Amino acid sequence: MTMHEYIGLIHKEEGSDYGVSFPDFPGVATAGTSLDDARAMAEEALALHVDGLLEEGEPIPVPSSLEEVMAAPEHRDGVAILVALKAEPKKAVRVNVTLPEDVLAEIDAFAASHGFTRSGFLAAAAKKVMAAE
User: Fold this and answer.
1) At how many degrees (to 10) do helices 101-113 and 118-132 cross?
2) Which residues of 88-115 are buried (b: 16+ CB within 10 A; e: fewer)?
3) pLDDT grade, residue 71 (50/70/90)?
4) For residue 1, what pLDDT is reported?
5) 80-100: pLDDT as tens digits
6) pLDDT of 73 strictly over 60
7) Is the pTM of this model over 0.70?
8) From residue 110, how far is each of 17, 19, 103, 115, 122 by CA, in Å?
9) What is the CA radius of gyration of the chain?
10) CA-CA-CA-CA torsion sign (38, 73, 63, 112)
11) In the chain, pLDDT over 90 holds for what percent of residues?
12) What superkingdom does the record give (predicted)?
């Protein structure tokens, strides 16, 4: 796989963090307290989402052009940046885990509301805990 770059749209309202959304990946969004932080978070969110799609056997969209993205009226209030999918996505390995039903429901709800797949969210949470050690 070659390196792909996707359009990320930065949104900033007074008193809020810098939000980043991805027109090619509806529902995927992240934020950062500074522009640099938002860009780093955008790269991480994109990589995690793509890893999750691959694990689920879903296709990865072809990057849209800047012209295509900015032609949509709902995107015109964002500032476009290129977000690179730097590393080749890792080979996904299917595993079985056992979780209490209520915890699984909470994980699924949180993941869906934050633009993650279940697998992408669990991977991100595990990496965050391991990095804190």
Assistant:
1) 100
2) eeeeeeeeeeeeeeeeeeebeeebeeeb
3) very high
4) 36
5) 999 988 656 566 677 889 999
6) yes
7) no
8) 20, 18, 11, 9, 11
9) 16
10) positive
11) 40
12) Bacteria
Domain of residue 114, residue span? 4-132
Q: Determine whether 46 is exposed, middle or buried from the number of CB atoms within 10 Å of its CB (0-12, 13-18, 19+).
A: buried
Angle CA(1)–CA(95)–CA(131) in degrees, nearest 5? 75
- CA dist 29 and 78 (Å) reads 13
Structure tokens of 91? 């080979």
Of 121 and 29, the structure prediction assigns the larger pLDDT to: 29
Q: Give how many domains the chain has, as a whole number.
A: 1
CATH number of residue 60's parent domain: 3.30.160.250
71/65 Cα distance (integer angstroms): 10
Name residue 79's beta-bridge partners.
10
| Block residue for tokens 């390196």 | 3
Per-residue pLDDT at 118 exceeds 90: no
Mean of per-residue pLDDT scores for the chain: 86
**Cα 114 to chain centroid, rounded:** 9
